[in-house]
Amino acid sequence: ARAQPGQHIAVHDASAAPDLSSAFRLHNDLHRAVDRQELAAFFQPQVLAQGGAVKGFEALMRWRHPTLGLVSPAKFIPIAEENGQIVGMGAWMLQQACQQAVAWQALRPAGAAPLRVAVNLSLRQFGDPQLFRHVEAALENSGLPAEQLELEITEGTAMLDLHHTLELLRRFKGMGLKLAIDDFGTGYSSLAYLKRFPLDVLKIDQSFVRQICTDRDDQVIAQAIISLAHSLGLSVIAEGVETQAQHTLLQDMGCEEIQGYLHGKPMPGADVAGWLSGHAAG
Ligand code: C2E
Ligand code: CA
Ligand code: CA
Ligand code: CA
User: What global pTM score does this model have?
Assistant: First the structure.
């Protein structure tokens, strides 16, 4: 039997009451987050293992929720992927990242190597027919050379169309963009992608870095990942590096770049200039 209209409305109203689950609440509020300009782009430095010169920054999304405060992307990105909002949010992020990278360049001493900016794209975003246009537009509007934009790819949710994704990645690569595989070694980024995708960079997931100084298994895995990457012509960046001991160990293993709290936490774009001027090396 069908529910009476009155019953239906009662149920709906109950779910809109203030005690609804936080996941549902985030889901609802996210719809307005973009319009209300509650999203922010943060940036975390990536430095050369040898010598510590800054090479670039990874762009990480933040949501300044009016009552809940800063919400982690681990909480709202999956919701945005689910409801398709990730497409618009991703386009916004590409614009922010490219504009910032151009602004940093103006602050660099003459002759300093150009800084790269890395933007996260879940493979779900590759299902969007507008992705290519969004990347092109971000580069055109900002004037950032394609070589300075890196795309970090994780599987995240199910890949919709491998053929289409591959074609897109080859087009990006043809434009000069850099491609990195993120969270390597976790369930979401597998060996199959190394073979199929035209990659430049492999990122060692922080789950292997956390206890690398004490856990022999993590050491063996990290070393194997680095050797594999180098055999395939990829460079390696380790994330989640919090101590000098971790940095040194990874450097000795041949890891080219380091990212983590040791060198800098993710910071608002407005703080990057200050960080750069206080960063002696390079
Ligand atoms: P991720 O791409 O693996 O990003 C690295 C995460 O590790 C970031 O968390 C960063 O703040 C954190 N981290 C960096 N260094 C350290 C460290 O030394 N120690 C520890 N414990 N953590 C460290 P965050 O910013 O919360 O981002 C979580 C995830 O959300 C990201 O993981 C990424 O998958 C996703 N994400 C963030 N921004 C975007 C975006 O613009 N688009 C998409 N599609 N996903 C995004
Ligand atoms: Ca990433
Ligand atoms: Ca990662
Ligand atoms: Ca991760």
Answer: 0.91
pLDDT digits (tens, 9 = 90+) for 86-115: 999 999 999 999 999 999 998 888 888 899
| 66 Cα to the center of ligand 2, angstroms | 26
Atom of ligand 1 nearest to the CA of 73: 30
How big is the chain, counted in residues?
282
- Nearest residue (by CA) to ligand 1, atom 7, is 240
Q: 44 CB less than 6 Å from ligand 1?
A: yes
pLDDT digits (tens, 9 = 90+) for 8-54: 444 444 444 444 567 777 888 898 888 889 999 999 999 999 999 99
- φ, ψ (nearest 5 deg) of residue 206: -65, -15
DSSP E strand stretches across the chain: 39-48, 54-65, 69-71, 116-122, 149-154, 178-184, 201-204, 235-238, 257-259, 267-268
> What's the ipTM?
0.96
Which residue's entry shows tokens 């009662």?
A: 10
